[in-house]
Structure formats: structure tokens, C-alpha cells
Amino acid sequence: MQFVSVRDLRGNSSAVWKKLQTEREMVITSNGKPIAVLSAVSETNLEETLKAIRRSVAVASVNSMQEQSVRSGRNKLPLKEINSAIDAVRRRGKA
Asked: Are 49 and 95 contained in the same domain?
């Protein structure tokens, strides 16, 4: 996968866009750290590509929450405590 700095993208965007056609995906970096992914799309696959990206982000978020739950020990909470916490949040939301 090709890595492109923000500076290169800003200063030489036409070359980056041409390269994207062959690479299909590129990682944009700032100070050497990845900050975004460029992905080539077309009119015909735009919606499908967006759905796939959103699905992937959602799965990563759920995985992260599960890992946090295990680290904090919350994965061992009894169902009664979980339901009690949910009810408390719902009551606060209605207030």
C-alpha cells in the first residue's frame, strides 16, 4: 500500500490522483502517522464502498468496546446489574 504525506497531497495532488487509479488505496500521513485512507471509487460502487467502510468502522468499534469491557472487568457483571444501569440511563434521558 502506498503512503502519501499531507504535504505531498497538497503540493502534488494531480500525481497522487493518477497514482490512486493504479494503487486503488493510499494511506495519508501527517508527521509520519496515518490519518486517513484514500480509496478509489466510481459512481457505480460508491454506495457499496461507503456501506463497507461504515460496516468495518462499526465492527471495529464493537470490538474495541468488548476489549474495554474485558480490561475493566465489566464483562463479568450480572445481567441484573446491566439492566439496572440501562434503566438508570433511560430515566436520566427522560428527565
From this structure: yes
Query: Following CA atoms 14, 51, 55, 57 in sequence, which dihedral angle do they give, to the nearest 10 degrees?
Result: 30
For 34, the domain range is: 1-40
CATH number, position 31: 3.40.1620.10
Report yes or no on whether pTM surpasses 0.90.
no
8 and 48 share one domain:
no
Render each residue's pLDDT in the chain as its tens digit; 95 residues. 899 999 999 999 999 999 999 999 999 999 999 999 999 999 999 999 999 999 999 999 999 999 999 999 989 999 999 999 999 999 998 87
